[in-house]
Amino acid sequence: MAHFAFVSAPASGHVNPTLPLVEELVRRGHRVSYATGPATMDGPVAAGASPVTLPSQLPPDMAARGEFTAEQLAVTMEYYLDDARASFPVLSEHFSADPPDAVCYDSVTFTGRMLANLLGVREISLVPTFAENESFSAAQVYLPADFDHTNPQLVAAIQDMGKFAQGHTFLEDPNLMFGYVAPTSLVFIPREFQMSGETFDERFHFIGPSLSGRQTTEEWSPRSQAPVLLISLGTVFNDRPEFYRTCIEAFGDSDWQVVMAVGALDQESLGPIPSNVEVHAHVPQVAVLRHTEVFLSHAGMNSTMESLYHGVPFVAVPQIPEQRAIARRAEELRVGRTLTDPTVRGLRDAVQDVRSSRPRAQALSRIVRGAGGASKGADVLEQLLTR
């Protein structure tokens, strides 16, 4: 049996899509070592992986890093570079002593590619959102039209990353964050949802999402026969008390059973809660989606795939450029509706309107579920090691 090293940023949106694949590999008798930060290690361990804890953590001000200005991109590059300087020595020491047969790394975590190059083993990019190739770049949809590529802070960050790459002569390609296309990529969305999906060749395996063992066993039951409206802005960009108050005004004392997840927000700041509205820090999202009529979401890719997996159309209130792109793609496929400035009337109209998209969401659900998921991903990895 093979030994797979997984390397990921310490973000739930990057780790969680990989957990069903880890479970499947372990079920087949393979050994998985999972390297990530302490904040996201519980999931891989529960999936059966051996932990390799990295000194990695997300910046404390992630919620303020939403827009892709030149300054913000420079700060992001500096973060990844600082993380690589701290994490790569841990990776190289651990896996030089316990070599894997292949390295599976999150597509934004270039230390995984560095590790594969250092050890001379196969590399597999794990892509939790839109994939990129030689003809499609996320910059085409994420960056604003007035983006300043000559910004001095950005130029300096690019130069620093180039110097870092030059200091590691084992790298086969010095492009760490931009312009590199891995020889094999597992993409956790179906090709039908991918922008410019027809341009991606056999290097890309669009396996779609899967549910983890925890997600399949979690239970939730509605309190009444009323249709369920699930509301969540995800795990990072959710400190939006004014948004939740608007939702309560829009749907309180209505025919909806409203289930709202607000993260660490002080629930007292929301004021009186009507009887048809339940407010939680977190909910078992997949379990709730099994009973949901409409999802009012930030349009993160994980939430989007979970919604479509269950045939649930959604209203998107995106918080960052990537989420706006995902929401736009959902609108193109006629399974979602986007609100950039949610008002009471706008929320009511959008939720009512998107209910008619349920047949299309259910049709796309069959495509999402038929993409192959973790089983197909494990097949790809096993076949790579037999070549």
Kindly describe this structure.
Helix content is 40%, strand content 15%. It has 15 helices and 13 strands. The protein is globular. With 387 residues, the protein is α/β, with parallel strands linked by helices. It has 2 domains: 3-210 and 372-386, Rossmann fold; 215-369, Rossmann fold. It has helices spanning 12-15, 19-27, 42-46, 70-97, 110-119, 139-142, 152-166, 213-217, 241-251, 285-289, 301-309, 321-332, 344-354, 358-369, 373-386, and strands at 3-7, 31-36, 50-53, 102-106, 122-127, 185-187, 204-206, 228-232, 257-261, 277-280, 292-297, 314-316, 336-338. Helix 12 links the parallel strand 12 and strand 13 (336-338). Strands 3-2-1-4-5-6-7 form a 7-stranded parallel beta sheet, sandwiched between helices. GO terms for molecular function: transferase activity. Keywords: Transferase. It comes from Actinacidiphila acididurans. It holds the Pfam family UDPGT. Belongs to the UDP-glycosyltransferase family.
